[in-house]
Specification:
single chain, 468 residues, two-stranded antiparallel ribbon, Rossmann fold, 6-stranded mixed sheet, disordered N terminus, alpha/beta, 3 domains, UCP010256, VWA domain-containing protein
């Protein structure tokens, strides 16, 4: 594929790009990958891909970003692949922008026929990606700015319009494969169209990388792994993916809190076993036996900031609260902005959690003036719900500790934390922003152990620390 020197450079650059994209790759794992290159056939690109994946990828969620970067650093071809005349058939100013209409090339019907044949076949067929590369060379280059050409997926997909071939392909597949259910055929066609779209996008990225530099396109093209998406910047699509991370974390959190409940507790003396064991030492009880502590599930109280500044974080943490309900003996949830109200009933068994979150601002009494006031919240909570926190309770506070310069009520928080068995605070802001502006993170952190929790990875790390 490359000379030995350039292979070393590509390896180092690829590993560095993985780290920049948020994939956890240690120096030792980078060396393991280098050793793997010595025992695989470097001319077999997919073998090389799997060798890297086996040594560098730890989670399925990291694989899409890995594959995208691998395609950039180890492309299947180098240089352009042109189909037909050199000139482009469309012009535009940016990806997805309006494209100037031009006459359709005379060979377009034949190209669409060829595309339909490939879409009814196997996307793993080398001809599939070769055709995608040829179509990018034929239709993908447009004028991005005066005197400047660039590559885009949109004009390729617009010219070939694979979605308009579905009816024709469906009829052909059902005729050729008698007995094939229509739903199965539609799913297969949808998958191959998606594969073609990705093949086009991959070749567009490759061409831009050759012209502008791999590092530049890598930084803009690779999304961070879902476990490193910042809660406060998560999109609706990313928030939907984050929901799948909730239930495993809830189970682990409940387990860790149970361990801490039991740790340090010794069961009562088992008199019979102790006396029986002493018979072997002449009646001297050198070894005492204790009854195992009675297992129990802990109780949890969650105080969640529901203000607009942390809305996506509160959305996720309320999903976590909903999942925790099944793991604890009792879970009580409270939301607040500048006053506090209990919202446990919104998460009753059988409730739709997303509907409950949507109804939160309409039904819960959590706003007086609309500005977060942690001090008033803590005082109001202690006044309205004096029995909420007890010696079996783990208290979990979720918020950014920004109180709009109001009185912090540290004494009230200290009293609440003292009543609980454990108290923790998860803050979605970067630690560097703590104590800036109206943040009083350090004063609150001196009373309740405060942890930076900007993403799922940090939340998982917090859960792990509970067992230490």
């Amino acid at each position: 594929m490359t000379t030995p020197a350039s292979l070393v450079d590509r390896h180092v650059g690829f590993v560095h790009a993985l780290r920049e994209a948020g994939l956890p790759v240690s120096p030792a794992e980078g060396l393991d990958a280098a050793h793997a290159l010595m025992v695989v056939d470097l001319t077999e690109r997919e073998t090389l891909r799997e060798a890297y994946a086996a040594t560098l990828v730890k989670r399925p969620a990291h694989r899409p970003g890995f594959d995208l970067l691998f395609d950039l650093w180890f492309p299947p071809v180098i240089g352009g692949t042109q189909e037909g005349p050199e000139e482009s058939t469309a012009e535009g100013t940016a990806e997805g922008a309006a494209v100037v209409e031009t006459a359709a090339p005379p060979e377009l019907p034949e190209l669409r026929e060829r595309l339909a044949e490939l879409l009814m076949g196997d996307p793993a067929d080398p001809a599939f990606r070769e055709f995608a590369r040829a179509m990018v060379g034929r239709f993908g280059q447009v004028q991005a700015a005066p005197g400047r050409q660039s590559w885009f997926s949109f004009p390729v997909l617009r010219a070939l319009s694979p979605e308009t071939l579905v009816a024709r392909m469906l009829t052909a597949m059902l005729d050729e494969r008698g007995g094939l259910p229509e739903k199965v055929a539609r799913r297969q066609i949808a998958r191959t169209i998606e594969a073609f779209t990705e093949a086009v996008a991959s070749d567009v990225r490759r061409r831009i990388a050759e012209e502008s530099g791999i590092e530049k396109i890598a930084r803009s093209a690779v999304r961070p792994p879902i476990d490193q998406v910042d809660f406060l910047r998560a999109s609706k699509e990313e928030l939907a993916r984050l929901r799948r991370e909730v239930y495993p974390l809830a189970r682990r959190l409940a387990t860790r809190l149970s361990i801490r409940q039991k740790r340090g507790r010794r069961g009562r003396l088992d008199f019979r076993r102790t006396v029986r064991a002493s018979l072997s030492t002449g009646g001297v009880p050198l070894t005492t036996h204790l009854r195992p502590p009675r297992p129990h599930r802990p109780e949890l109280v969650v105080l969640c900031d529901a203000s607009d500044s942390v809305s996506t974080f509160s959305h996720f943490t309320l999903l976590l609260t909903f999942a925790l309900r099944e793991q604890f003996t009792k879970v009580r949830a409270f939301a607040f902005v500048d006053t506090v109200d209990e919202i446990t009933d919104l998460f009753a068994p059988g409730a739709d959690v997303l509907d409950a979150i949507a109804r939160l601002t309409e039904t819960a009494d959590i706003v007086r003036f609309g500005r977060t006031d942690y001090g008033h919240v803590f005082e109001r909570f202690a006044e309205r719900f004096p029995d909420a926190v007890g010696p079996r309770t783990s208290l979990l506070i979720l918020g950014d500790a920004r109180s709009n310069y109001q009185v912090p009520a540290l004494g009230t928080l200290k009293r609440l934390a003292g009543q609980a068995r454990h108290a923790y605070w998860l803050n979605p802001e970067p630690r560097a922003r703590w104590d800036t502006g109206d943040s009083i993170a350090t004063p609150y952190g001196s009373v309740v152990s405060m942890h930076e929790c900007r993403n799922v990875a940090q939340l998982a790390a917090f859960v792990e620390t509970l067992a230490s």
